[in-house]
């Protein structure tokens, strides 16, 4: 099976999840959770990540990380691989404990940073494990609001600076923001079939930069375009200039694998006109 496209670059922000094989638990004790956090800390240091939020559930985990040098896949390979080895050794088991590859959503920091961070720490509340997020000890929330000592790998100070200048007010503002989010739907639902969460301009910008990836891996290009692509409506926004529209046409067809007919139908153009626009855009 073809793997979903990974878009990696320095400074990228991701919501990451990894689930247990066959939906089985990946943490069966608090000792397992401590062991995982130690491994996560080592990977953050090794790959120069910034971790803004996390939550460890029983059969999966959530992370919000920024990859300073763009090394997402290598870091996640080591994180999941080393934890699996440690888990198997500790419990005298063998084989995979995590289901396939991790899931990663690329997040636009300017628009969805805080709502995704809130979504992560509210997981135990949505699951009915606790009534308030501070009652759950295995997320970053208690550390961020100052109830527990902050672990060195958690970038809580940088995160809180977005809420207020002084730490006390920042923590209170962040706490109110999280509590207001109880009952809100997952922001990841707004991704549609794609794995990029952000404004239409951000989505278009990201997909316009993927041509080199497909040229380097032509054997899987078509399948990966289909697996990771955004919705057509995400690529075309209101009041686009003619130039921007034509660039978006090229991205939709050449990079994302949409048909000329699908693009023509959305834009109320003829397929022949779309083909002509695509040809001229590629030539230039």
Q: What is the gist of this entry?
A:
The protein is α+β, with helices and mostly antiparallel strands and 284 residues long.
Question: Could you please describe the fold and organization of this structure?
Answer:
By secondary structure, the chain is an alpha+beta fold. It folds into 2 domains: 12-189, Alpha-Beta Plaits (2-Layer Sandwich); 199-283, no CATH class. The protein has helices at 30-47, 72-91, 109-121, 123-126, 141-144, 156-160, 167-180, 200-207, 211-216, 221-228, 232-235, 242-255, 260-267, 271-283, and strands at 12-19, 49-56, 60-67, 103-107, 196-197. Strands 2-3-1-4-5 form a 5-stranded mixed β-sheet, sandwiched between helices. Helix 1 packs antiparallel against helix 2 and helix 12 crosses helix 14. The chain is globular. Residues 213-227 have low confidence and may be disordered.
List keywords for this structure.
284 residues, alpha+beta, Alpha-Beta Plaits, 5-stranded mixed beta sheet, globular
């Amino acid at each position: 099976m073809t793997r979903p496209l990974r878009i990696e670059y320095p400074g990228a922000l991701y919501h990451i999840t990894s689930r247990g094989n066959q939906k089985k638990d990946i943490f069966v004790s608090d000792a397992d959770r401590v062991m995982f956090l130690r491994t996560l800390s080592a990977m953050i240091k090794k790959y120069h990540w910034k971790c803004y939020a996390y939550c460890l559930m029983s059969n999966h985990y959530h992370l919000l990380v920024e990859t300073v040098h763009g090394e997402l896949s290598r870091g996640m390979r080591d994180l999941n691989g080393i934890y699996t080895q440690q888990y198997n050794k500790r419990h005298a088991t063998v084989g995979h404990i995590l289901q396939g590859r991790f899931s990663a959503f690329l997040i636009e920091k300017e628009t969805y940073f805080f709502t995704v961070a809130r979504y992560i720490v509210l997981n135990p509340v949505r699951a009915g494990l606790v009534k308030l997020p501070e009652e759950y000890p295995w997320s970053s929330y208690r550390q961020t609001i100052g109830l527990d000592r902050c672990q060195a790998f958690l970038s809580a100070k940088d995160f809180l600076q977005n809420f207020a200048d002084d730490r006390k007010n920042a923590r209170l503002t962040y706490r109110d923001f999280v509590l207001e989010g109880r009952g809100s739907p997952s922001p990841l639902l707004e991704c549609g079939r794609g794995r990029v969460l952000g404004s239409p301009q951000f989505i278009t910008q990201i997909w316009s930069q993927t041509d080199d990836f497909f040229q380097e891996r032509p054997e899987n290009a078509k399948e990966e375009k289909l697996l990771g692509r955004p919705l057509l409506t995400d690529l075309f926004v209101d009041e686009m200039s003619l130039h921007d529209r034509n660039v978006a046409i090229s991205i939709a067809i050449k990079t994302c694998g949409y048909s000329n007919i699908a693009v023509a139908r959305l834009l109320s153009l003829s397929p022949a006109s779309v083909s002509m626009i695509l040809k001229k855009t590629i030539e230039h």
